[in-house]
Amino acid sequence: MRTSVPYEEVAETLTEYLGLDGSPVAIKLAKSKEAIPDGIPEIDETIRHCMMVSIARKEGRIFYATAEKHQCMGGAWAIGLRELTESLKSGEFYYKLGKFDTWAACMRTIDQVPNVHVPGGTEAPTYATVYAPLEKTPFDPHVVLVVGQPRMMLKLAQACLYRMGGRLHCSMAGIQSVCADTVALPYMTGKINFSMGCDGSRKFSGIEDSEMVVGIPGELIADVADAMKIVTGAPGSV
């Protein structure tokens, strides 16, 4: 970004005023190997995107992952690392998991899942995903992901509306929350999106039953942090 953002200060504000258990996570969708900042190592394990978020959030690690390091095919597709598999495209995958009554219902859902893509493009647009705790990020994030309790999300929602007001219109389907809902959608639209999480992220990445997830475009994170200081101290705040 051309605008300089004090990420350490922003992270401290969010953590202090929200009482976060873990760091906000900076995520960059690198389009090429050259777009990965020097000195950042590739992750050794082959795991899911939501688990990578948890490692940055809880362990403070900074790393990148190419498509080969992403275990979840649906997540890798949502963030632009792979093409959509035939089992997902047809609806077969989620139908077999028992989450929909018909294949048609599966297909309607998959057709509307946010995903990183180049209109008219035929190749996966993301070379690698890069992760860091926000307070230590050596790169400008495309998206900042925050995991927290509903009360924290309430304050984030108020901070998002502090300057312009209006309403927040969130998109979710109970599947692919940490990849599609809170990375792909904010990246592609420039809009903040809240999600209740999904079975996969709760099972594999340590998101608690009491927690939700929000994805904030990197361009907006400083304004949200500034507003956070105001709305949490407002007379009507609890």
Would you kindly provide a written description of the structure presented here, covering whatever features stand out?
This protein has one domain. The protein contains ten helices and six strands, in the order αβαβααααββααβαβα. It has 238 residues and is an alpha+beta fold. The protein has a six-stranded antiparallel sheet. The termini are far apart. It is globular, with a radius of gyration of 17 Å.
Secondary-structure content class: alpha+beta
- Relative strand content: 5-15%
Number of strands: 6
Quaternary state of this entry equals: single chain
Global geometry: globular
Largest sheet: 6 strands, antiparallel
The first-to-last residue Cα distance is 35 Å
Strand order of the largest sheet: 2-3-1-4-6-5
Round the Cα radius of gyration to an integer and report it: 17 Å
H/E element sequence = HEHEHHHHEEHHEHEH
**Mean pLDDT reading:** 93
Q: Which percent range fits the helix content?
A: 25-40%
Low-confidence stretches: none
Total domains: 1
Number of helices: 10
